[in-house]
Design brief:
Elements (H helix, E strand, L loop, with lengths): L2 E6 L7 H16 L3 E6 L5 H12 L5 H25 L4 E4 L6 E3 L8 E4 L2 H8 L3 E5 L2 E3 L5 E3 L5 H11 L4 E6 L20 E3 H9 L7 H10 L3 E5 L7 E4 L12 E17 L4 H11 L4 E6 L6 E9 L3 H8 L3 H4 L4 E14 L9 H11 L6 E5 L2 E7 L3 H11 L5
Parallel strand pairs: 1-2, 1-9, 2-6, 3-6, 9-11, 10-12
Antiparallel strand pairs: 4-5, 7-8, 11-12, 13-15, 13-16, 14-15, 16-18, 17-18
The chain binds adenosine-5'-diphosphate, aspartic acid and magnesium ion.
Adenosine-5'-diphosphate binds next to loops.
Length: 405
Amino acid sequence: MALIVQKYGGTSVGTPERIRNCAQRILETQRAGNQVVAVVSAMSGVTDNLIKLSKAVSSDPTEREMDVLLATGEQTTIALTAMAINDMGGKAVSLTGAQAGISTDGVHTKARIVNITPDAVRRMLDEGNIVMLAGFQGQNQSGEITTLGRGGSDLTAIAMAGAIKADLCQIFTDVDGVYTCDPRVVKVAQKIPEISYDEMLEMASSGSKVMQSRSVEFAKKFGVRFEVRNSMNNNPGTLVKEENQGMESVVVRGVSLERNQAKVTIDDVPDRPGISSIIFGALAKAGIVIDMIVQNVSFHSTTDISFTLSAAELAKAEEALKPVLPDLGKDVAMRVQAGIAKLSVVGIGMRSHSGVAARMFGALADASINIQMISTSEIKVAVTVDEAEIERAARAVHTAFGLDA
Ligand code: ADP
Ligand code: ASP
Ligand code: MG
């Protein structure tokens, strides 16, 4: 008998028929002789709608109340799926994150899991139940409801699989697995049979939202292997696991795109110690997450600094910087630009192959797409381009690295 954790995403439980489809799959998994914990997301659109509702009643809802609100989405789905399973002759019980022993820190709306005490889950499994577990939620030390950040049901599944030492963790979604690029953008993208944690993590954190990046970080840290599969068919999916030697032979595993980015440039800042610290200190204090940072070499004692961030945080960043600009120098000016997007190529093979950046830039040049900013890591090359060009850029780069099916 194996212990299996499955996770079904929002689209997979998006209608009553789809909930029954998932219930059927969960029940079949148990009837094949396994113990099953099934994590579900809110039905598709529900979390977004709850956020909209909160904005309709308040201009500035507290994050504590946001968590109380958002956690209801998953609570609906666990109960409905458990009812469907029971209706099919199975035996299921639903548990909230708190009831399942998921303890988090106190950072409302993006809490981190600090501990899992799965006693209730184990007991219910041993009593022959399917455990329906609410994704995306936990409780902090004071017993308040917390949520784990958008896409956080992936993290619930992987963390629970780690805590109960599951034999298998399956993430069911609305595509057949992890592809070389978002298959909705690059139609000729291919399913990747196996991918390393590091590659999956870089792809997820550079915009491939098929997995929440924090869940992949967790899986790597605790060695939880998992597969990504389609909830609507039985096609083989993608296995995400520790890297092996053969994996390095592929230079670029995948291409990611991230829209809704913005760029801030601060011109004519003096080239002396402490300047970057003032700028990024002010942004950090305002809790703004910065992505790429580029500073030019200075020739005449001044330079310019550019950085990117989510366009949604642009106004907040401008507000945070305005008061500190006068401290930087009298000619210092700030320029902002929304409507940009980031394109990244990712692969652990880059560590041992040269020419990756050149090939990427060549493909963009051939497509007459202007590169605005460039950044690299050991296994990633990323550029920003005009958002209107991002899909064309993704297709050109995907073809250039021989990834088209
Ligand atoms: P779920 O609701 O199941 O969590 P998500 O919407 O979070 O599903 O993630 C699945 C979606 O991720 C797919 O529908 C696909 O459009 C998108 N996606 C982005 N990049 C990739 C990729 N490289 N491979 C597969 N899907 C991707
Ligand atoms: N319902 C949450 C969201 O939409 C969590 C999840 O689906 O994983 O982000
Ligand atoms: Mg998701």
